[in-house]
Amino acid sequence: MAAHAQFDGVYHGLDQVGGRLRLTEGGLGFKPQAGDSNGSGSTFTLESDRMDSFGWLKVGRGYQLRINTRNHNKRRETFDGFHRDDFDRLSGAISEYYSKRLEQIEVSVRGWNWGKAEVEDTEVKFLVRDKLAFELPLEQIANTNIAGKTEVSMEFITGEQQQPQTNTGTSTNGAVKPKKQRGDQLVEMRLWVPGNVQRSDDEEEEAGSDAEEQETAASAFHEAIKAKADIGQAAGDGIILFKEVLVLTPRGRYDLDMYSGFLRLRGKTYDYKVLYSSITRLFLLPKPDDIHVQFVVGLDPPIRQGQTRYPYLVLQFVRDEELDAELNLDEETIQTKYDGKLKKRYEDPTFRIVSSLFRVFSNQKLIAPGTDSFEGTNSSNCLKCNVKAVDGLLYPLDRQMIWVSKQPIHVRYDDIHQVIFSRVGSGGAVSTSKTFDLKVTPKSGNQIIFAAVSREEHDALSKHFTNRKVRVKNEMSDVVAIDDVLSDDDEEMEDDEDDSRRRRASKNSKSFAGDDDAMDEDEESEEDQDFEAESSDGGSPSEGSSSDGEGAESGSDDMADGPPKKKKKN
Fold first, then answer.
1. How far is CA 89 from the centre of its chain?
2. Where is the composition biased (Low complexity) (predicted)?
3. Element (H, E) at 538
4. Rg (CA), the chain
């Protein structure tokens, strides 16, 4: 028996640097090529007792040796770059050193998108005519849901979630983080799984009356993934469970199940897995009704629901609701792992228990309005406003402001270029407006407009920003000055009109006084003519034959229509 078997020009995993692979009875070792300029390769060893099974398949870089491991930090180690002729020598070495068989794996190259999906211990395999098309590691599945009755969606852990040390939540003091070159990554996949589960006769007898409602294949596939992946209660012992928590974003009632490294939101339709390392901010914000408290959790990367991203979780609790809860932790774990920051038993309001656990598990500060924070006219720490057509509550805090709605908006004061107080409308509409707009211009990005803010909040809000060294521009004072000028002009115009009316009245009175004699002569001549006509018509048969009622009515009409006649002058 040879002491070792050696293969050159082999690549470990996704390394771009080739090297030398050596197999011995005690294990294997890989060493990158010496003198490589990239320096991206590293020496690797694996003990023989951690090798579980071996596979051989065709890949992009020749042929691949796949080693499934046990009691190892990775479920699988791969080595690419083998040639077809290396199979016999490699198979003999594995059989000789490790008493294992090198299994050949056939890969489907038909390109079909239909086949059979199987859930195994560590992966989901998609087979086309019993040949492997692709496989998905279960440890990379962050969430799974049933979209409809026959469609199963799988969401995968992103690069930031795989490396939680990149998200420590520490402040950068406004410094711009360098951009990282990242390639494309699979974040979601959906499989159409039609039909129902075929049960055996024994299973149908055990099901009894429930046999009428057959389980769909999609539901069975979904449950199999939850059971095998790092999803659900099987993933570890839960620390505490909160039932039917009201979540405003994404809206619904969810069971909040908290574990040591992550939490799960379980709803009737959707489940979400949130790593504590992805939590960046925590806000505890009282609502102005003095009944509810909102707990806002910032996430990076955000959770997903199809194409919709949720960078914030918004939970709502009743302020006076208390809970008697006990953690599934022993005192030693509380003291050693959590530095005594947790209690074994809680008898407090629910929102305080939840916020305390989030703060300890995520190692993030809990931000809440302080004693010197913004206080509005109704003694609340927030004000109502709109962003576009969506209502929400704006909380101006000590170092930042957050607008809470379906999609919260968070802005730090040191990221703001200036805030502008602006009023809507023109002319009389401005002077009678009861609201104003708060325009926030960040140092980078688009302007945010918080509309329909009550006019009574202006002074307190302006003072708050000024005390925080935020640049404030007030366009309302300019508009008020314009209104004052316009009102002065209106008053002057009214005075001019009054003077002109008085002048016209005095001129008219003088002209009326000079024309009195002529008007009297005209009136007297007209009255003389009328009198003569009346006296000549006095015996008219047509007028004299009319009835008294008609005569009285016509007389009244004449008095109502015509002016009173003057007496004839002698």
1. 57
2. 536-549
3. none
4. 43
> How many angstroms separate the CA atoms of 9 and 1, rounded?
24
* Contacts of 168-176 spanning 24+ positions with Cβ under 8 A: 169/279, 169/280, 169/281, 169/362, 169/363, 169/364, 173/414, 174/412, 174/414, 174/415
Q: What is the CB-side half-sphere exposure of residue 273 using CA atoms within 13 A? A: 24
Q: 277-289: per-residue pLDDT in tens?
A: 999 999 999 999 9
Do 224 and 236 contact (CB within 8 A), yes or no?
no
520 contacts: CB under 8 Å, gap ≥ 6: none
Closest CA to 283 of 158, 408, 172: 408
DSSP 276: G
Maximal C-alpha separation, the chain: 163
CA pair distance 153, 422, nearest whole angstrom: 46
Q: Phi and psi (nearest 5°) for 146?
A: -100, 115
Distance (Å, rounded) from C-alpha 342 to C-alpha 360? 8
Domains of the chain with CATH codes: 5-105 (2.30.29.30), 138-162+187-195+216-367 (2.30.29.150), 383-482 (2.30.29.30)
Angle between the 475-514 and 516-536 helix axes, to the nearest 10 degrees? 60
pTM: 0.65
**φ, ψ for residue 39, nearest 5 deg:** 65, 25
Distance CA(209)–CA(203), nearest Å, equals: 12
At 392 the three-state DSSP class reads: strand
Q: Contact at 8 Å (CB) between 293 and 348?
A: no
Contact (Cβ atoms closer than 8 angstroms) between residue 79 and residue 86: no
170 CB-near residues (< 8 Å, 6+ apart): none
What percentage of the chain's residues is helix, strand, coil (to nearest 5)?
Answer: 30, 35, 35
Helices (H), 515-547: 516-536, 541-544
Q: Cis omega (within 30 of 0) on the bond before 408?
A: no
130 vs 109, 127, 136, 151, 470, CA distance in Å?
12, 5, 16, 22, 66
Over range 341-352, report the average pLDDT: 95
- Integer CA distances (angstroms), 473 to 305, 386, 414, 466, in order: 40, 20, 16, 10
pLDDT in tens, 184-239: 888 889 999 999 987 665 655 665 555 456 789 998 998 898 888 766 544 457 89
Least trusted range by pLDDT, from 31-45, 203-217, 244-258, 451-465 = 203-217
Contact call for residues 236 and 259 (beta carbons, < 8 A): yes
Q: Which residue has the higher pLDDT, 78 or 139?
A: 78
CB 435 within 8 A of CB 454: yes
Contact 159, 185 (CB under 8 A): yes
Q: 475: how many CB neighbours lie within 10 A of its CB?
A: 14
